[in-house]
Amino acid sequence: MRLRTYKSQGLVLRQYTLGEADRILSILTPNMGKVRVVAKSVRRPQSKLRGHLDLTNIVEFSASYGRNLDIVTEAQVRDDHPHIRSDLSLLSQAVYVCELADSFAEERSPSRDLYQLATVTLDLLPDSEDVWLVSRWFESRLLEVAGFKPQLESCVECGSELQPDDHMLDLAAGGVLCPQCRAYSIGARVHITESAMRVLRHLQRSRRFRDVGSPNIGRKIKNQVEGVHTRYIRAILERSLKSEEFIRRVAESEPYYDSGGGAASSSSV
User: Fold this and answer.
1) How far apart are CA 64 and CA 84, in angstroms?
2) Distances (CA, A) of 58 to 28, 124, 126, 175
3) Rounded to 10 degrees, what is the CA torsion of 172, 174, 178, 180?
4) For 5-80, which CATH superfamily applies?
5) What DSSP designation does 73 have?
6) What span, in angstroms and rounded, lies between the C-alpha atoms of 99 and 14?
7) Are 5-80 and 83-254 in the same CATH fold?
8) Contact 160, 178 (CB under 8 A)
């Protein structure tokens, strides 16, 4: 006999307004995968659920099974990441992490690895000296956990070892092409410089963030690496992420600091 209710811990990945006071939520759980639930009256000031089910929160919640969507009956926040919420730049990255996890997570398909990766990344963001590096490491690990790890060590078509050089990533094939196979490829491709390739491979090999270390990566190479990940993820999802625009607007509104400690405007990057 199927139980009518269940309890779980979860990370709130996404939320949509429903009617005058309700919300539909995507919550990533370690044991059930992603679940979509309705939080009734959560937008009303007197709601007992109000404040517990906000985006990026880790919560303990109870829900009852519904015909289409389950209904949250109780919720208690366990971690609302206050250091992230007090910094707009960190918040934009946290929203991106949650949207990306939501995009790759499958409903009712347990993925403890994905849950741990997302929650660990949110913990890393406020403590890291390089938030950019945290986000790129998350992307690299997410692609592996979700089964979309790009082939960067050898040619995705013939398997030959790739020599140090600039290369092309075939978006449809999911990997880099050697010069010979590149000549016969007709799909969409992304250029990867030798320097950017070294960074991408290092991120792939770093299963834990502490394994990444503190590499000195220039702004130009950072832009290239981020561009490769962005293009590849868009090709997989067949769409852009809404949080990309949020990150861009926040970055344009604030100065960034170069490795020498001097301030520079975002337009000078």
Assistant:
1) 31
2) 9, 15, 16, 35
3) -30
4) Nucleic acid-binding proteins (2.40.50.140)
5) E
6) 7
7) no
8) yes
Instruction: Report the candidate in 115, 96, 18, 6 with the shortest Cα–Cα distance to residue 58.
Output: 115
17, 23 Cβ separation under 8 angstroms = yes
**Mind listing the pLDDT tens digit for each residue in 127-165?**
999 999 999 999 999 999 999 999 999 999 999 999 999
| Beta bridge mates, 70 | 37
DSSP assignment letter at 88: H
Residues in CB range of 62: below 8 A, 6 or more apart: 5, 6, 7, 72, 73, 74, 75
Which positions ≥6 away from 213 have C-beta within 8 Å?
A: none
How far from 183 is each of 150, 157, 171, 178, CA to CA, in Å?
20, 12, 15, 9
**pTM of the complete model:** 0.90
The topology under which CATH files domain 83-254 is de novo design (two linked rop proteins) (1.20.1440)
Question: Which amino acid is located at 14 in the chain?
Answer: R
Number of neighbouring beta carbons within 10 Å of residue 233? 20
Name the token pair of 160. 């030959």
pLDDT tens for each residue of 22-71: 999 999 999 999 999 999 999 999 999 999 999 999 999 999 998 889 99
Give the number of other CB atoms < 10 A from CB of residue 173: 17
The domain locations on the chain are: 5-80, 83-254
Rg of the chain on CA atoms, in Å: 21
